[in-house]
Design goal:
Largest interface: A-B, 44 and 47 residues
Oligomer: heterodimer
Number of helices of chain B: 7
Radius of gyration of chain A: 19 Å
Structural class of chain B: alpha+beta
Order of helices and strands of chain A: HHHH
Structural class of chain A: mainly alpha
CATH superfamily of the largest domain in chain B: Cytochrome c oxidase, subunit III, four-helix bundle
Strand order of the largest sheet of chain B: 4-3-2-1-5
Strand content of chain A: under 5%
Helix content of chain A: over 70%
Number of strands of chain B: 5
Number of strands of chain A: 0
Shape of chain B: elongated
Helix content of chain B: 55-70%
Radius of gyration of chain B: 23 Å
Largest sheet of chain B: 5 strands, antiparallel
Chain lengths: 101, 250
Amino acid sequence: MSDTTDLTHFKKHVNVCVWIFVALLVFTVITVAVAQIDLGKTRNIALALFIATFKALLVAAYFMHLNAEKKTIFMILFVTFAFFAVLMFLTLGTLSDHIKL
Amino acid sequence: MDIPYTVSPRLDTGLWNAKLGIWLFLASEVMLFGALFSTYILLRVHAPESGVLMWPKGSDYLNIPIGTFNTAVLITSSITVILGWASLVMKNLTKFRWYMGATILCGLIFLGVKAYEYNEKFHHYGIFLKGGTVVTGHLVSEAEDHAMLIPDAKGDHHSEPKRFERSEIVRISCFGPKYSPFFAIYFTLTGLHAIHVIGGMIVNAYLWGPGTRMWATQPARFTNRVEVAGLFWHFVDLVWIFLFPVLYLL
């Protein structure tokens, strides 16, 4: 690929990042707005965390370039998130004691 | 001797040194914050369902507009750091300096707002009374036998200072970490996050100032350094994306 094509592609990537920035601001406003609506405690928590996860994925994919990253990085992240999930579920496991299951 | 793979990637990993290094570091950071989020869940799930230690809604104590503003500031700093790095890729150091300067400024605004929030909390008090009630407000004075507090106003009603005898008081605390498990985890999470913001700002300030000397001799390596600093900065933003709803909204 020529340098000009590379640069055009790069500029497109930067433009996408600017739109992602706008989307992140919009989703921040949406997060605040839906938190004001009483959907029930569980639904409110689930919705807020769903939006936050979506925003985090946008940051990781576009700002941190994970949408075009090397396999080695995904291997590191896979191990990390496996342990992260264990950490979360170990904690949630204490719920079974709490509600006497 | 030159250090290999500072600019060009290794054939086996496809990565240059700093890129591999920062992702390994970020992986350890995920576990650090993960442990604290796990603590948050544990505290929240096991909080009593009534009484003074009941888990509050974040907005009962924290200011949502201020939190929203700070979220926007951090997101803005994420795009400016990208635009700074992109300027270097397009060989424009002057533009990089402007964007990196804006990133540092956003970091300063974020910390300033956080300091304001912390200060407010340390000047707001709760008096825990025998019988399980808590009166919150601004502490006027505290003596050996009594305490004077202006209770928080309800609606348009303006509160007058109220006297509490020591014999009816269990404890007096500002809205600091010792006030409740909510504030303990709030200060731990936001404090650790603020330390990360400060760390990122120091690196960004170095790259904005004396670090630019490298641009004259090794522009590609300098661009890589900025990219790596940016990855850390985005991680700091990503953590806040979860902290904001978890602490302020839920």
